[in-house]
Amino acid sequence: MKLLIILIKKPKSDDVENPHMTITHFGWIASPSRISDISSEEFMVKWIKNGGFNRVLVKDPDGNEIPCVVREKNGKEYIQAMNRGILTDDLLSLPNFDE
Known about the structure:
By secondary structure, the protein is mostly beta strands.
């Protein structure tokens, strides 16, 4: 099963050094089942670290599905998209949702 991230939840303030670290939740659609849900950042980090790499994806501006990876800074783990070895801001371009 793969999860396509379609929404994120993060504070509206862009006054941070690394806005990827402020994402708290992810809205996703599972494939092929088409089940959708919202998961915490902690859940998604664990999913990727426990074998979900290349199965947690986001679409780039051209519509290509690219994998999300777990990164760490100052002891905090967070998720960022990586296209062919290059970190991208594709997650930050997704719509922000309110719970």
